[in-house]
């Protein structure tokens, strides 16, 4: 029989590292599967998914700009996908399209397990209120920080997220300029780094550890700012590998070892 087929769907998609990551996971765990890139037209996401299902596809990862479309298309949602309001992992089963979101748990695993930075009892600052920020809120609150503050350029969006998750822990909203006190962990979930821009937060907010969801060749301006003010810093490459491992587990029921795959990707940057 032919190996099971998976894809990562996005637009653009050529840059995606997911096929390399999943090929390594498959080789390591002895799972027989193929994993390709699928470029969908910006208005053609659901058609692309339906075509792939008809061809026998078993699952998909979903990236920019389709995570909301995937959320709408799913016939069943996991609690973490519901909370995130977005879907990055689809699993096709008979007539059902299961939607999951592994981004948040991927980031928390990268910080808590890989970087060894516990969140329990800590003050955590989350910069940004877009899709990436929303997806990590519940997994952060599950770690029981003493407080989570969401700060965003457009403060009303931070306030919306804070009220949405108010029942799950101590959570507050702010703009960048008015932030008070130091935070043990500062997470940049804005897309500012893409434009070499820095959210204008007071230097006094920077505590022991800072994380930028962005990854690439160089340290971002945010990572430079945070390390200048004494923080240990980490980029989002580990989040990328961990969200993939969690998706692999959803599809295959097997947990790959992420450390060697992370090391290979890091060396290739
Ligand atoms: P969205 O477009 O949904 O949200 C963008 C956010 O960034 C908003 O809060 C926006 O503020 C803020 N922002 C944009 N530009 C600036 C700026 N110049 N200064 C300050 N704030 C700014 O993007 P996503 O949430 O989907 O993605 C955010 C980042 O996370 C991206 O860089 C993406 O690459 C990264 N990411 C990494 C992953 C990984 O696996 N490592 C996974 C998912 C995302 P406002 O509301 O005021 O417009």
TrEMBL record:
Homodimer. Residues 118-193 form the Quinate/shikimate 5-dehydrogenase/glutamyl-tRNA reductase domain. GO terms for biological process: amino acid biosynthetic process; aromatic amino acid family biosynthetic process; chorismate biosynthetic process; shikimate metabolic process. The keyword Glycoprotein does not apply. Keywords: Amino-acid biosynthesis, Aromatic amino acid biosynthesis, NADP, Oxidoreductase. The active site is at residue 67. It holds the Pfam family Shikimate_dh_N. One of its GO terms (molecular function) is NADP binding. Involved in the biosynthesis of the chorismate, which leads to the biosynthesis of aromatic amino acids. Catalyzes the reversible NADPH linked reduction of 3-dehydroshikimate (DHSA) to yield shikimate (SA). Its EC number is 1.1.1.25. This is Shikimate dehydrogenase (NADP(+)). Residues 8-90 form the Shikimate dehydrogenase substrate binding N-terminal domain. GO terms for cellular component: cytosol. It comes from Noviherbaspirillum denitrificans. NADP(+) binds at residues 128-132, 152-157, 213, 236.
